[in-house]
Write a structure and sequence with these properties.
313 residues; mainly alpha; 14 helices
């Protein structure tokens, strides 16, 4: 935060509403590339390692760096427990199992973006926020897009995996709103507590429900381990640190719409390296989903901008 931005209400508005700097654009680009690559890395890792093992090892790698943040005081215990459960073993358990089940990366990545309209829906239900007509239309378009995408003969076999990703997106949306409802929930502390709980939970579930865990771990090639380390360190720590830096300098609505480009990176990697097939039905369904998601995101951005103007009027 610059000195001008911290000098008073008008200074804060001036700093936050000024054009994004080159450094901020580079941070946004780095986050988009990291998240896009991480989706492809998750698909590769789950091809060699049991999915829940991948999740557990990801959090274990992250915990090495996040452990110093696990210290009191902690925010509201019940809400923190719900956040940790939803964002840790439940969300990532579903995500990695879904990625392990699915044959194609692209429809899974597109479906994962439903967390944005889900968040608007949960905010309307739990926080009483208004859902404007464009957001409602965007939500409908997004879900129709995912449905249409799954009707493609090349994608229909991935329907169970897509359902898991949609459920994971809903869990992430609920957790996002719970974070907003929990004063004092510092991002790195929440991530650290999540990693502390999720790493042993996912590894225990892997040994309980997945087969040949030890054999697959022992025979996994270096690329699988590189993908796990990338997820745990570069994505969880690096991209998150850049994101926190951005939203401390800017309103979230100024930067989050750019992250809708993440599926473009993942889908390009899926087609180029993982054998994804882009059929007309998949393209139409995926495009409709992203249009719907963008409509929700941009409507929320405009609503928050209007609220900020009203507060300073």
């Amino acid at each position: 935060m610059t000195g001008l931005a911290g000098s008073g209400p008008s200074g804060a508005m001036s700093g936050k509403s000024s054009p994004l700097s080159v450094l901020e654009y580079l941070a946004i680009f780095a986050i988009i590339m990291t998240w896009g690559i991480n989706n492809a890395a998750a698909k590769v890792a789950t091809a060699y390692l049991p999915p829940m093992t991948v999740g557990g090892l990801r959090f274990l790698a992250a915990l090495v760096f996040l452990f110093p943040f696990i210290r009191p005081p902690f925010p509201e215990p019940k809400k923190l427990a719900a956040i940790v459960l939803l964002t840790g073993p439940i969300h990532f358990g579903l995500v990695y199992v879904g990625f392990g089940m699915g044959q194609s990366l692209s429809p899974l990545v597109v479906a994962s973006q439903l967390w944005i309209p889900f968040t608007a829906l949960v905010a309307w239900k739990l926080l009483g926020e208004t859902m404007r007509l464009p957001a409602v239309l965007g939500l409908i378009v997004a879900f129709v897009g995912v449905t249409w995408m799954t009707l493609d003969p090349h994608t229909s076999g991935d329907l169970p995996a897509i359902v898991l990703i949609v459920l994971a997106s809903a869990c992430w949306a609920v957790a996002t709103i719970l974070v907003r409802m929990t004063p004092g929930a510092k991002p790195l502390k929440v991530q650290a507590v999540t990693a502390l709980f999720a790493a042993p939970s996912l590894l225990a579930m892997s040994f309980a429900f997945e087969t040949q865990v030890v054999e697959r771990v022992m025979t996994a090639p270096p690329i699988a381990w590189a993908c796990v380390i990338f997820a745990g360190v570069v994505s969880t720590i690096g991209a998150s640190a850049l994101l926190f830096w951005l939203v401390q300098r800017r309103e979230a609505g100024r930067v989050t719409p750019y992250f809708l480009l993440t599926p473009l990176v993942s889908c390009t990697l899926g087609v180029a390296f993982l054998g994804d097939k882009l059929t007309p039905q998949l393209l139409i369904g995926g495009a409709a989903t992203m249009v719907g998601v963008a409509l929700v995101a941009l409507t929320e951005k405009r609503a928050r901008a209007e609220e900020a103007l009203a507060e300073t009027a």
